[in-house]
Amino acid sequence: MPMVSRAKPAPFVTAFALTATLMLAGCGSDDSATEPTTTGRATSATAAPTGERKGSSVTVDVDDMKFSPENVTIGVGDTVTWKFSDKAPHSVQGIGDKAMGINSPIFDKGEWSYTFTQPGTFRYLCTLHPEMRGTVTVQ
């Protein structure tokens, strides 16, 4: 029986995989200036270019069935971190179109952060306890 030799597809497959990976890597967007960022915990501010203000962080305690302080005033680029330490689970949910991005998971313990990139007044509440309300004023 004659032996049939088959071409090895490895170079083609490797080249194809490398090309696809490079193409997909370029699909992201660098336009993050208009989108707020969220994390599962507090983040440190990054260095700002010369002449610009560095972002800072404010903590709101979620305990005893309330947000404390209930109202905070921050600057554009600042981060608010909600620290959950109550016996009951809570969340942070923005109220109205302007605050749509404020939407934490439900927490028993831990923290959740949101960086505000636009000036304005942002109202929020706990989805499980709607009487718990707060406001972030961004100047």
Structure notes:
This protein is mostly beta strands and 139 residues long. It has a domain at 38-45 and 55-138: Immunoglobulin-like (Sandwich). It is 12% helix and 31% strand. The protein contains 1 helix and 9 strands, in the order αβββββββββ. The chain has one helix at residues 10-25; strands at 38-39, 57-63, 66-68, 71-74, 79-84, 93-95, 110-115, 120-125, 133-138. A 5-stranded mixed beta sheet has the order 1-7-5-2-3, with no helix packed on it. A 4-stranded mixed beta sheet has the order 4-9-8-6, with no helix packed on it. A hairpin with a 7-residue loop joins β8 and β9. The radius of gyration is 23 Å and the shape is globular.
CATH topology of the domain at 38-45 and 55-138: Immunoglobulin-like
How are the strands of the biggest sheet laid out side by side? Answer: 1-7-5-2-3
Strand content: 25-35%
Please summarize the sheet with the most strands.
5 strands, mixed
**Helix/strand/pairing category:** mainly beta
Shape by Cα distribution:
globular
Topology order in helix (H) and strand (E) letters: HEEEEEEEEE
- From the N-terminal CA to the C-terminal CA, the straight-line distance is 83 Å
Give the overall average pLDDT: 75
Question: Helical content, roughly?
Answer: 10-25%
Task: Give the topology, please.
Blueprint: H1 10-25, E1 38-39, E2 57-63, E3 66-68, E4 71-74, E5 79-84, E6 93-95, E7 110-115, E8 120-125, E9 133-138
Parallel strand pairs: 2-5, 4-9
Antiparallel strand pairs: 1-7, 2-3, 5-7, 6-8, 8-9
